[in-house]
Amino acid sequence: MRPLFPSVLILAIAACDNTITPSEALPPLQAASLDSAAGGWRMIVLSGPTQFTVAAPAAETSAAYAAELAAIKSAQAHLTAAQRSSIAYWSGGGVLRWNEIARELVARFNLPPAPRPDGTYPVPDPENPFADPQFPFANPPYAARAYSYVSVAQFEALKAAWYWKYQYNRRSPALVDHGIAALMPVSDLPAYPSEDAVLSGVTVEMLKVLFPAGVAEITQRAADERNAALWSGKAAASDIAAGLALGKAVATALIARAGPDGMRNAVGNATQWKALADSAVARGEIPWISQESPPRPPMLPNFGQVQAWLMTPAEVVSERPPAPPSTSSDRMTQELAEVRQTVEHLTREQLAVAYKWNDGAGTYTPPGHWNDIAAEYIRDARMSEVRAARAFALLNMAMHDAAVGCWGVKYLYFNPRPVQLDPSIKTVIGLPNFPAYPSGHSTFSAAAATVLSYLFPQAAPDFDTMKEEASISRLYGGIHYRSDIERGKEHGARIGLYAVGFAQQDGAN
Amino acid sequence: MQPRGSTVLPFLVIGLCAPSLRAQTVDDGLLMPHGAVATGFLYAHESWSRYWEGTLKRDNGNIGTLTTQTVTWVAGYGVTDRLSVIAMVPYVRTHATQGPLHGMHGLQDVTLAAKYQLLSTPLTDRGTLHAMVVAVAGIPASNYEPDFLPLSIGLASRRFSGRFTLNFQAHQGWFVTGSTAYTWRTKVTLDRPAYYTNGQLYLSDEVAMPNVVDYMVSAGYQRGRLCVPISLSQQRTLGGGDIRRQDMPFVSNRMNFVQVGALVMYRGIRLGASRIVSGRNVGQATTLRGGLFYTFPL
After folding, report:
1. Over residues B22-45, mean pLDDT
2. Number of neighbouring beta carbons within 10 Å of residue B238
3. Predicted pLDDT of residue A18
4. Quick check: B93 and B153 in contact, CB under 8 A?
């Protein structure tokens, strides 16, 4: 009995501490720079910062404004613990918090439809998002596009907000009236229109379109953000009202772009799916076949035709990698053997790499993983809200364009997975239901690492290591050939350079 | 997905009767005599083709039938007439008959148990009442991957259980046993930096594991060295999320089940079968068991 006591004791103690904090602990954001010139940074979708006008605010000396200040004091006198907790949560930065929330939404909606009893699959319906299957199926291309629309919309809205802030130069309530406490860091950044309200308005409108079944929670979070700004003494009611209106107005411009961007045709139809296989056969290649049971239609075959952010359709085509090794070539035989050898002799470390980067169904996807990585660097750099939005916009435009580029090539060649050519190969992660060449993980990761290395040059070696690990993890998983990975990385790096090129000239440096 | 959350339970129906088998279980009503040593191996073949996705019962063409084979080395020692210690080490291998997913294998969790007899007293003139407390610790014996359910061989959590068992042994050979345990489980560390479960994204590689309670009643008859018990057991996980529609199972899912079992034992040989009759986030497993045990002469 005696030897058992120490382990029993340790277990009993360890069992007591069993709580996990779900969200990132973010310190209150004290921006390293106000970025007062951000109103002049280059726009992506808007014609300019004045496309949506923000009317002049009432004077700080007006009776209306005095009433707003009094309301803040009154609210601060009766703050509940929940309200203080909300202030602490949002003080970490609205851009970072909304990025977390977007990742959560992707993870929630990243589930493929279950098969019907007759072996067919229903298609998620944006007109009926609460049904089974829920809408959307936030798979990697859908997620890449969603992250990019949220990030670009925030970036555009904040640049416009910065422009109007420095037009009107109204101070934060906590600076106007010393009877108001600054419960969040309050800076010399003009308060009108409130950047927190701009973010809440633009983000809620984008997320409602992208994740309509999440509307209740999204709306609540947006209201929380505005309330936190008010209660903290950072913004007055009129700062918030003007910000909310500007944010919602900017969202309309982004939603107008999203409607006809090609996403609604990305699923395709049975005739198109068959044509993809026929085309591969006509070229003398073995076409991709779904390995799911029952066979599932391929994931978003027409996503390669979705509008890119920073590349013209001609550039999307011209940057494509060459054809993969023929399915009947010796090279393919060798690469297939490498997959089998690798997966049958995996070390525990290789298995851990495969799981670290799996980012499969039910997760925030590879683009979400790179947002997770970027968020730490953005937090540590104490970027202003507008600069943080720029970083995420550059990253997510590059990954959206990577998805467009990669999916175009996948369905151009319609190349089978290793498991299809050699059924004796078993995978240690889920097998994606779309053609192998090139690797989406490799393309996403190289594009992301290229952008992040530009934004955070001191960490470039780290991003390169992560990119290599994410890419090779697909060989360890048994789901990709080496050619998929190598050509995917090259392709992704080329695509990432378009975002770097934009960043070099957008006026933010 | 599978009732592997508690490796204690597969042994629920074992060894209620013959003295040579007493040491191998943690939840019967019996003890080994002072100085006695017993050892043996158990083999279990568990399979299911239908499972509960949350509360929705379904099959899955990408799994087919999932089979888990387990070989467990068991040893027991009578420290005193009132205190026995037991050790178990299982080797587990999983396999899916359909789909591309790779089976896994390896040493699962070492279980150490100490059983102490609180009470052994004649009850009326018909038999004897026994009361036991058991402390059980389970620790992963290898660095296996818990994040690939239902193919993972275990959940990789360290466990500590407190068990209470009441047994009535009638002089004519009938017996009845009731047992219940509460199991604390430590956090599990995954190889990935974030996961979504129970309606929430967690930006952490650590997973909080809900605790578990189980209940068991068994009854049987013993004559000479033949013993035939039947049992009904239930596991309830006190928290955790459901498997979402068309999602993979997750390590901290709320894995509940009710299981019936029967066993035949003769000398050091045992054959048994059990079946899960209802469940949540587990496979509807049918398990066949065999064991060979040897007790060293004192």
Report:
1. 74
2. 13
3. 66
4. yes
What range does the domain containing A134 cover? Answer: 38-53+69-258
What mean pLDDT, rounded, does chain B reach?
Answer: 88
Between A and B, how many CB-CB pairs are < 8 A? 148
Q: What pLDDT sits at residue B30? A: 57
Residues pairing with B136 in the sheet = B113, B161
Minimal-distance CA residue of chain A relative to B185 = A15
Query: With an 8 Å Cβ cutoff, are B62 and A293 in contact?
Result: yes
Q: Are B1 and B255 a contacting pair, CB within 8 Å? A: yes
pLDDT in tens, A106-164: 999 999 999 999 999 999 999 999 998 999 999 999 999 999 999 999 999 999 999 99
Looking at beta carbons, which residues of chain A come within 8 Å of B200? Answer: 22, 104
Is residue A21 included in any domain, yes or no?
Answer: no
Q: Which of A7, A20, A358 sits opposite B208 (nearest CB)?
A: A20
Domain range summary for chain B, segments of one domain joined by +: 3-295
Phi then psi dihedrals of residue B116, to 5 deg: -125, 130
A191 and A210 co-located in one domain: yes
pLDDT value of residue B26:
58
Number of domains observed in the structure of chain A: 2
Q: Which residues in chain A have their CB less than 8 angstroms from residue B241's CB?
A: none
Give B260-294 pLDDT, tens digit per residue. 999 998 888 889 999 999 999 999 999 999 999 88
Q: Which amino acid is at A266?
A: A
Tell me the HSE value of B240 on the side-chain side, using a 13 A CA sphere: 26
Residues of B in contact with A21 (CB under 8 A): 204
Hey, are the CB atoms on B194 and A369 less than 8 Å from each other?
yes
Residue B110 in contact with partner chain A when CB distance is under 8 A: no
* Positions of chain A with pLDDT lower than 70, given as ranges: 1-18
- The answer, for B248 touching chain A at a CB cutoff of 8 Å, is yes
List b or e across A165-174, with b for residues whose CB sees 16 or more CB atoms inside 10 angstroms. Answer: bbebebbbbb
Query: Residue B228: left (phi > 0), alpha (psi -120 to 50), or beta?
Result: beta
- Residues of chain A with Cβ-Cβ distance to B185 below 8 Å are 15, 18
**Which of B143, B158, B192 faces A356 most closely, judged by CB atoms?**
B192
Assigned domain for A454 exists? yes
- Give B-chain residues touching A366 at CB under 8 angstroms: none
The partner residue sitting opposite A355, judged by closest CB among B101, B159, B192, is: B192
Which of chain B's residues have a Cβ under 8 Å away from the Cβ of A419?
A: 100
pLDDT at position B171:
86
| Cβ–Cβ below 8 Å for B100 and A425 | yes
Check residue A382 and give left, alpha or beta (phi > 0: left; psi -120 to 50: alpha): left
Q: Which of 3.40.50.10490, 2.40.160.40, 3.10.560.10, 3.40.50.1260 is the CATH number of B3-295?
A: 2.40.160.40
Please give the pLDDT value at position A2.
42
pLDDT in tens, A296-351: 999 999 999 999 999 999 999 999 999 999 999 999 999 999 999 999 999 999 99
Measured CA to CA, the distance from residue A95 to residue A157 in angstroms comes to: 12
Which amino acid appears at position A435 of this protein?
A: P
- Note whether B134 and B113 are within 8 A (CB): yes
Minimal CA separation from B40 to chain A, in Å: 21
Nearest CA in chain A to B60: A293
Contact B109, B186 (CB under 8 A): no
Distance CA A420, CA A423 (A): 6
- How far apart, in Å, do the first and last CA atoms of chain A sit? 68
